Structure formats: structure tokens, C-alpha cells
Automatic annotation (TrEMBL), chain A:
Protein's organism: Qipengyuania citrea
Keyword check for Transmembrane helix: yes
Official protein name in the record: NADH-quinone oxidoreductase subunit M
InterPro entries according to UniProt: NADH4_N, NADH_Q_OxRdtase_chainM/4, NADH_UbQ_OxRdtase, ND/Mrp_TM
Keyword check for NAD: yes
Pfam family, one: Proton_antipo_M
Keywords, comma-separated and alphabetical: Membrane, NAD, Oxidoreductase, Translocase, Transmembrane, Transmembrane helix
Length: 518, 487
């Protein structure tokens, strides 16, 4: 038996979470930081030891310690990347909360570490019910994080977050029970290749969709997100946008598509229509926001719509693009929330109108903010460009219309992000207090610089991130190929013409008679 | 069947009865001074009875029949499992009782005696295989319960609770008796085996009425909708330890009766009773959830919560399979831990003057005043709401699994969707404790006995509880096999 690294990655933050409950403020901060850094180191180790092109499921562990389901862990390339995203963002979240959180620090750090355990657990589960337990359990720490340490309207936001997502996911449990009963196993790799009857698939797909669509969040069930984002503390928003929103996309890739290919094909247009509405509608809504966090929250919904559209393109390009958008968006929107947090900590308002001209007194901050703004727009050379381009290219193969609408969304994205940037960073310094704000300190550098580096890395050399997933996505594409629907832009290569386009097929003299007919 | 075997199989009840009688004499001679001592003896007797029942449970695999007194009583695995739960729950409640009454100056020596008689009655209920034995057990338990409900006789609310409980309980007993008489009239037997055999030959409309009346009467006892009206008032009015008791052990006993009746004498008529159970299940879940939303009193809230939980338990019964019975027992086990934990935590909530705190306003900001207690309550509430990774989720998981396996997917889907409504008020509990600012002072320390009971309950309900899933699954499957053998 090999070294149980995934269990260790769960155990370290769990131990930290329990310890933090009993510790004073400063020690709790240190413990949390150390625990998350150890997990990051373990994550790097995991990546280095991941055998690209090797077995589909690696680092597998299995223990039959529960009745009805097993403690089975294991990852493929997609899960590896999302685990890396989680462990990368966690120490940054702890740093972001270093001074911002002053009351009940131990409990706060404990909730965050618990969150990390659950996120890693979701991505590493190889048992359906274990997945469900981790998936649902995330509600508890997030409810507390929003409710205890959130803004003024935190209670409403915490209730809405909890009940909305709970209602979405309970039906998934019934679907899972039915599947386990039908297939006789709860093992995800086995279920990936189990063929349910198409009639059953329709219902199962809908039950899973209810859960993942809310988590994603897709229009029209996205309304919990802006509330939760605005009220959550900065680090809570980072985790929410950075990792929790990825659970929905991960669910689609892990469950909906490979387990119910026929039903997925059947509902493709449903997903496309929702995605198109989401891209356009939420981008327009983002344009008119006066609250920075709300603006970024709506932009998240728009980006996630590109993810769903890319996933349901049923081809490798689209799915690879979707995962890359998830990774890129996780970094970029997390970083944008951190940028908002930096100035919120100084002025305690998220009103865009209260700021202005920050480039004058906070030039370094302005630079980071610019980089992340550009990344959010999808500037080539940044992470989001790779993902969005791939997703849209994959999408183009199946529907030009959807691609057209989604691309319009990206243009709108440039509009609202640049507009935000202009109002906050450029222009005149209208407010005295905003003009007096000091530039980034060392802690804030430590938060933003690693994300900036990762954003550029992902933009310049995406192969590092695509390579581990390629095989898994190819397997997924092969699995769903039989159900892949036909679409308008079925641009297969036709038989070439015999001659060049400007070839004239006759000698000059012969054509003279026909010319007269014009 | 020798008389000695019969005595051996019923030794737990006989032992408890003798202890209760002896304690009664002691109480009469020594008065209330010895109340605490009598409580300790009663707890010891209950734990002893539980240990004996465990032994009987382990041996039930070999002596499947376990019939006593000419099949009036059956000490099978199901009965023993139920009794272990009942006795342990009663003992746990007794442990946290004295302090409550001592504060109000009302603790008297009869209390542990009544609890013991109640436990005997409940033990007979879950093991009864004859409608007459069932009725005797039921009345023995109910009559002690009426007295317990009005134990604080100077307190108006307590007296009112006792009276309400008595009037409605008597009505329920009457309904059961009417049903019993109909069943007897149409089958010519009060014995479960006899009834099943007679029903297999002919199941007439009159007999159906008998079945419905018996089920309705038992539904009163488990406070399933539409027979739940008494629950909030009685739970609120009765002294808190008594409420804790009502919500735990008698629920187990009444559920045991219901399961045994449904799966033994009425096992052939699943189609006749299943729709009743399904209706009661869904109605209980919805009414229990909606009724709780507006409540300010925590005991009243927990009363609605118990109605809600009964609904989930009934979903397991509606499956009418061995897995369904096993899921009911699993749920009951977890439910008992949740209820006793919640009420113990409630008993630990007092202001510095010793006044009990009972409303939401009183526990605002508890997490800053009593962090440990608040976190325990958080575990209990999320567990009641059925949110993983807490163990309360497992109870819901097994009942829904049983329902799905029995092709009752629609029932499971509606039930679980309605459980989201219930999550709302459990969340409110946590919101008040964790998000609100403290308004009242609370007592800063609690006795070790309370912490011990609470600690055990919370440890079971924490994710550690999942380590119990394998043994719990085996035990409940063994208990459920009692009926499959009978079928």
C-alpha cells in the first residue's frame, strides 16, 4: 500500500481545525497558516508525483469502514487541478483574514480549515455518498462564515445561501440512492461506465442538475450568489468564488455528462439557452452595479455560464476550456475579491463612487488590479484567455449561435470590468480619505503576487495544467461520443476543389461567345 | 415452553417491577429525603435491565422464538433492541432530572418509581404479541406518563399538560380498544399469529376498520399528524426532564408497537395500511416543519421537531421491508441521541439565579457566553436537520434508502424536499446562538452528570458516529429479521 497522501491532506487541516477551536487569536492564525501551507506543500508533492499518462485514477485509497458506502479516495487529472486550486487559495485566504478578522478568530480559522477539508474531500472522493457528504457538509462552515463574520445583511444572506443550496442538493441524494440500488455499487469509477436506461437518465439528470445548477450558479437560480458574496468577509468571498463555484462544474463533468450521456444530449439546448441568457443578462446587470463585490459576483455568474456551455459542447476542446475557465476564474475572481478586500480594509466601504484616482496614491495596487482586470476580460497571455478561447472554440464546433452570444458576453465583460477599473483607479481623487490610503503592505504583496504569477503562468504556458487532464478529458469525450448531438456548424473538411478558386477552366478564345450573353 | 423460560425472557421487566416496588416502599418510609438515592438505584436498575436485554438480543439469533407465557409476549431481537434503547434513554433522562426539580423544590421520591413503572410498561409494549398484552403495557406506560407530566403540581402549565395528556391519551386508548375489539370480532383472536392467519383467509371491510383504528390510536402515541395536536402543549407545559423523556423513550416504545403490528399481524395487508402510513409520514414532516417556524419557546420548537422526525421514521415503515424496519430502528437510535442531547443542553441553560431559559430571546449570543455548550447545540441542530457529516444525516439516509429500494421514489423525493423546510428553524437556532448579540446572562458552569450525558450524545452525533454504521447496520438487520422469520 502506498503512502496515503490524500488522507493526510484531509487530516492536516482537520487537526488544525480542531486545534484552532481551543486556541487564542494569534496562535490560531499561525496554526491555520501553517496547516494550509503544509497542505499546499502536500498538494505540490501530489502534483509532482502524478503520473501523466498513467492510470486514470491515482493515489487511490479504500477502507470499508462505513456501512452502505466506503471511504474511497483517488484522483484523476481534473480533480488534481481543482485540488491544487483549493490548496493554493487557502493560505492566501488565511492571510487575507489576518487583520480583517478580529473577533472569534479561533472559530473563524477553524471554519476555514474545515472548509478546506471538505473541498479536498469533494474532489478526491471516489464513492458517490462520500462525495455527497463532503459536498453537503460545506454548507455548515460557509453558513457560519457568512453569518458570524459577514456584513450588515449577513443573516439574510446566510439563510438564503444555506436553504437555496440545500434544496438544490437533497434531490440529488434520492437520485444517488436510486442509482446505487440500480447499479449495485456506489463506486464512482464503476458508475462512470454504467449505462442507465435513457428514461431513468432523464430524471437522474434533472435531480443532479438541480444541485449543480444552484452551486454553479446558473441563471435563474443564481440569486443567492450576489447576496452571499457581498455579505461574506473577503476570504469567504475568495473561497466561494474560487472553489465552491467549481463544485457545480466539477459535478457536471464527473456525474452528469459521463453517467447520463443520453440525457445530457437531450438537455443540451436547455443548458445552452440558460447559459446564453446568463452571459448576456448578468453582464448587463454587472454594468450597473455600484457595489464592487456585487459586480464581481455577477461577473462570476457570466463566467460560469461559459463553463456550462463549454462542458455541454460534448468535445474535448470545450471541456478542456471549461476546466481552464474554472481554474482561471478561481484565481482571477479570488484575486479581484482580494483587491476589493484591500481597499475595503482601509475605507470600509465597497461603494465604487467612494473611490477614484487610486493610481495616484496606490500605484502598486493599481498595477495588480489592472493585471487581474485584464485577466478577467480574457486578455491573451493571462489564464482566462486560454480557457475562454478553448471553450468557445469547442462550442463553435457545435453551435455558431451559442458561440456568438457567449462571445458577446466577453465583450460586455470587457465593458464592465474596464468601467469598474476606470472609476476606482483612474480619474480624479474625489474623496479625501480615499486619497490618503497607503499602498500595499508586505502581507498584501504576499497575497497578490503568487496569484499574479499563477495567472501569467497559466496564460503563457497552459500545457502544465492541460497535460494532466488531457487523457481524462479524452476518455470523457469517448464516453459521451455516442450521444453527442449534431449541430449546425458541423464543419468537417469537405473534398477539395480540383483547382484554385481563380482557375479559369477554358482557354480565352472559347469563352468569347458566352460573354455576349451577359 | 416452561414457566421458567417465560420468567427468564421477561426478567428485565420483572426485575424492574420488583425494584420499583421496593423503591416505592423505601419512598413511603423515608420520604423525599432519599429521592436522590432512589434515583441512583433506579438508574442502576435501568442500566442493568438494558444489559440483560443486550444479552437477550445476542442470544435471540439462536432462540428465534423467544415466546413467553403462551405467546402473549415475545423477547425476540426486535423487542430486545427496542428495550435497550428504551432503558438507556430512561436512565439518561433520570440522570439529568434531579437538578431541575431540586431548583424548583419539587423533587419527590415517587419520580424514579414512576419512571421505572413507565419503563416496564414500555418494555411490555415492544414485546407484546397479543393485543391484550399490548394494551396492558400501553396503559401502564401512559398512566405513569400522565402523572409525570403534571409532576410540578403547583405549576399551572404542568397541571394543564398533565390534564391534556390524560384526556387525549385516554381518547387514544379508547380508539385502540375499539380497533382491537373490531379486529377480535372479525378474526376471533387477539394473538398476532392468529390475527395474521385469519386475515390471510379473509380481510373484510370491518377488519380494515379495526386496522385503521388501531393504527390511529398508536399514531396518537407517536404524535403523528393528524393526531399530533397534544404534543406542543404537553411538551411545553411538562417539566423539561419529563419532556425529554416523552420525546425519547415512549416514542421508541410506540414506534416499536406500530412496527410490530404493521409487520406481524397486519403483514399480509401492506396495501391496506401503507397509504395511511405514507399520508401520516408526509403530513408529519410538513406540519412539523411549518408549525415550528413561528415558535419562540424552545420546548415547543422541539415538540414540532419530534413530530417532524416521526414523519421520517414513518417513511422507513412505509417501505414495509426488512430494510425498512432496520432503517426505522437506526433512525430511532440516532433520534434518541439527538433528543436527549437537545433536552440535556436545554436543561443546562439557566441564568445565574437558576431560572431555566426556554425561549429564543434567552439564548441569543450563547456562543460567546458558553462556547462549548453552543457548539454542542450546533452539532445537535445540524444533526436534527440531517446535514452531513453529522450523524443525523445517516438516519435520513437509511430511511430514504429503504423507501427507494421499495420503489417509493416519489415518497422519498417529496419527503426529502420537505425536510428543507425543517432546516429553516434548526438554522434559526444556530443563528440566534451564533449570530446574535448576547442579551442575557447565563449560568457559567453545569454539573458533570449533564456534561456526561450531553457528551455521549454529541460524540455519537459527530462524524465519529459513522464508525458505528457497520455494527448498527448489523444489529438493526438482526432485529428486523425477527419479522421476516414470522412472515
Amino acid at each position: 500500500m502506498e503512502f496515503p497522501i490524500l488522507s493526510l491532506m484531509l487530516a492536516v487541516p482537520l487537526a488544525g481545525a480542531i486545534a484552532c477551536l481551543f486556541l487564542g487569536a494569534h496562535t490560531a492564525r499561525m496554526v491555520a497558516l501553517v496547516a494550509t501551507l503544509v497542505d499546499l506543500a502536500l498538494g505540490v508533492l501530489l502534483w509532482l508525483n502524478y503520473d501523466i499518462g498513467g492510470a486514470q485514477w491515482q493515489f487511490t485509497e479504500r477502507a470499508e469502514i462505513f456501512a452502505g458506502f466506503s471511504y474511497a479516495l483517488g484522483i484523476d487529472g481534473i480533480a488534481l487541478m481543482l485540488i491544487m486550486l483549493s490548496v493554493f487559495l487557502m493560505p492566501i485566504c488565511i492571510l487575507a483574514s489576518w487583520d480583517a478578522i478580529s473577533k472569534r478568530v479561533g472559530e473563524y480559522m477553524s471554519a476555514f480549515l474545515l472548509m478546506e477539508v471538505l473541498m479536498i474531500g469533494v474532489f478526491a472522493s471516489q464513492d458517490m455518498f462520500l462525495f455527497y457528504i463532503f459536498f453537503e457538509a460545506g454548507l455548515i462552515p460557509m453558513y457560519l462564515i457568512i453569518g458570524v463574520w459577514g456584513g450588515d445583511n449577513r443573516i439574510y444572506a446566510s439563510y438564503k445561501f444555506f436553504l437555496y443550496t440545500l434544496l438544490g442538493s437533497v434531490l440529488m441524494l434520492i437520485a444517488m440512492l436510486w442509482m446505487a440500488n440500480e447499479a449495485g455499487t456506489t463506486d464512482i469509477p464503476t458508475l462512470l461506465n454504467y449505462d442507465f436506461s435513457p428514461q431513468a437518465q432523464t430524471w437522474l439528470w434533472l435531480a443532479f442538475f438541480a444541485s449543480f445548477a444552484v452551486k454553479m450558479p446558473m441563471w435563474p437560480v443564481h440569486t443567492w450568489l450576489p447576496d452571499a458574496h457581498v455579505q461574506a468577509p473577503t476570504a469567504g468571498s475568495v473561497i466561494l468564488a474560487g472553489v465552491l463555484l467549481k463544485l457545480g462544474g466539477y459535478g457536471f463533468i464527473r456525474f452528469s455528462l459521463p453517467m447520463f450521456p443520453e440525457a445530457s444530449a437531450q438537455f443540451t439546448w436547455f443548458v445552452f439557452v440558460l447559459s446564453m441568457i446568463a452571459v448576456i443578462y448578468t453582464s448587463l446587470v454587472a454594468l450597473v452595479q455600484s457595489d464592487m463585490k456585487k459586480l464581481i459576483a455577477y461577473s462570476s455568474v457570466a463566467h460560469m455560464a461559459i463553463v456550462t456551455a463549454g462542458i455541454f459542447a460534448f468535445n474535448a476542446q470545450g471541456i478542456e476550456g471549461a476546466v481552464m475557465v474554472m481554474l482561471g476564474h478561481g484565481l482571477v475572481s479570488g484575486a479581484l475579491f482580494l483587491c476589493v478586500g484591500v481597499i475595503y480594509d482601509r475605507l470600509h466601504t465597497r461603494e465604487i463612487a467612494r473611490y477614484g484616482g487610486l493610481a495616484i496614491n496606490m500605484p502598486r495596487y493599481a498595477l495588480f488590479f489592472l493585471l487581474f482586470t485584464m485577466a478577467s476580460i480574457g486578455l491573451p497571455g493571462t489564464s482566462n484567455f486560454v480557457g475562454e478561447f478553448l471553450a468557445l472554440a469547442g462550442l463553435y464546433k457545435v453551435s455558431t449561435l451559442v458561440t456568438l452570444v457567449c462571445t458577446t458576453g466577453i465583450i460586455l465583460g470587457a465593458a464592465y470590468m474596464l468601467y469598474l477599473y476606470r472609476r476606482v483607479v483612474f480619474g480624479l481623487q474625489v474623496n479625501e480619505d480615499a486619497a490618503r490610503m497607503p499602498d500595499l503592505n508586505a502581507r498584501e504583496w504576499a497575497m497578490l503576487a503568487p496569484i499574479a504569477a499563477a495567472v501569467l503562468w497559466m496564460g503563457v504556458y497552459p500545457e502544465s495544467f492541460l497535460a494532466p487532464m488531457r487523457q481524462d478529458i479524452a476518455a470523457l469525450e469517448a464516453r459521451v461520443a455516442r450521444a453527442a448531438p449534431d449541430f449546425d456548424a458541423d464543419n468537417t473538411i469537405g473534398t477539395p476543389r480540383e483547382h484554385n478558386a481563380n482557375y479559369v477552366g477554358f482557354a480565352h478564345g472559347e469563352a468569347r461567345g458566352e460573354e455576349g450573353a451577359h | 415452553m416452561s414457566y421458567a423460560t417465560s420468567l427468564y425472557l421477561t426478567a428485565a421487566e420483572i426485575g424492574l417491577s420488583i425494584t420499583a416496588l421496593v423503591l416505592l416502599l423505601l419512598a413511603a418510609w423515608n420520604g423525599d429525603r432519599s429521592a436522590r438515592l432512589l434515583t441512583i438505584i433506579a438508574v442502576a436498575a435501568l442500566v442493568g435491565a438494558a444489559i440483560f436485554s443486550i444479552g437477550l438480543f445476542e442470544r435471540s439469533a439462536s432462540e428465534v422464538a423467544g415466546r413467553a407465557f403462551g405467546d402473549l409476549y415475545r423477547a425476540d431481537a426486535f423487542g430486545s433492541f427496542g428495550k435497550v434503547l428504551i432503558y438507556l434513554a430512561s436512565a439518561a433522562v433520570l440522570i439529568v432530572t434531579p437538578r431541575f426539580f431540586t431548583q424548583l423544590g419539587g423533587y419527590r421520591a415517587e419520580y424514579p418509581v414512576l419512571m421505572l413503572f413507565n419503563a416496564v410498561g414500555m418494555g411490555i409494549m415492544v414485546s407484546a404479541t397479543d393485543l391484550m398484552t399490548l394494551y396492558i403495557g400501553l396503559e401502564m406506560s401512559s398512566l405513569s406518563s400522565y402523572v409525570l407530566a403534571s409532576f410540578l403540581r403547583q405549576d399551572d402549565r404542568s397541571s394543564e399538560a398533565g390534564l391534556k395528556y390524560f384526556v387525549l391519551g385516554a381518547l387514544a386508548s379508547g380508539i385502540i380498544l375499539y380497533g382491537v375489539s373490531l379486529v377480535y370480532g372479525f378474526t376471533g383472536s387477539t394473538n398476532y399469529d392468529g390475527i395474521r392467519a385469519a386475515f390471510a383467509l379473509d380481510f373484510s371491510t370491518g377488519a380494515l376498520f379495526g386496522v385503521v383504528f388501531v393504527l390511529a390510536g398508536v399514531a396518537f402515541k407517536i404524535s403523528a399528524v393528524p393526531f399530533h395536536m397534544w404534543t406542543p402543549d404537553v411538551y411545553e407545559g411538562a417539566p423539561t426532564p419529563v419532556t425529554a423523556f416523552f420525546a425519547s423513550a415512549p416514542k421508541v416504545a410506540a414506534m416499536g408497537v406500530l412496527v410490530r403490528i404493521a409487520m406481524d399481524p397486519f403483514a399480509g395487508e401492506v396495501d391496506a395500511w401503507r397509504q395511511i402510513i405514507i399520508f401520516a409520514a408526509l403530513a408529519s414532516i410538513v406540519v412539523g416543519a411549518l408549525g415550528a417556524i413561528g415558535q419562540q419557546n424552545l420546548k415547543r420548537l422541539l415538540a414540532y421537531s419530534s413530530i417532524n422526525n416521526v414523519g421520517f421514521i414513518l417513511i422507513g415503515l412505509a417501505a414495509a421491508t426488512a430494510a425498512g424496519v432496520a432503517s426505522v430502528l437506526t433512525y430511532l437510535t440516532i433520534y434518541v441521541a439527538m433528543v436527549i442531547g437537545s433536552f440535556t443542553a436545554l436543561l443546562m441553560l439557566r441564568d445565574p439565579a437558576g431560572q431555566n431559559l426556554e425561549t429564543f430571546a434567552d439564548i441569543a449570543g450563547l456562543s460567546t457566553r458558553r462556547p462549548a455548550l453552543a457548539w454542542c447545540l450546533l452539532v445537535l441542530m445540524f444533526s436534527l436537520a440531517g446535514i452531513p457529516p453529522l450523524f443525523g444525516f445517516w438516519g435520513k439516509f437509511v430511511v430514504f434508502q429503504a423507501a427507494v429500494q421499495a420503489d417509493l421514489v416519489a415518497l422519498a423525493a417529496i419527503g426529502i424536499a420537505a425536510s428543507v423546510i425543517g432546516a429553516f428553524y434548526y438554522l434559526k437556532f444556530i443563528k440566534v446562538m451564533f449570530f446574535d448579540e448576547p442579551t442575557r446572562d447565563v449560568e457559567t458552569s453545569s454539573p458533570v452528570s449533564h456534561w456526561a450525558v450531553l457528551g455521549v450524545c454529541v460524540a455519537i452525533l459527530s462524524p465519529l458516529g459513522y464508525l458505528l454504521t457497520i455494527p448498527l447496520g448489523e444489529w438493526t438487520a438482526q432485529a428486523a429479521a425477527s419479522f421476516v422469520a414470522a412472515m
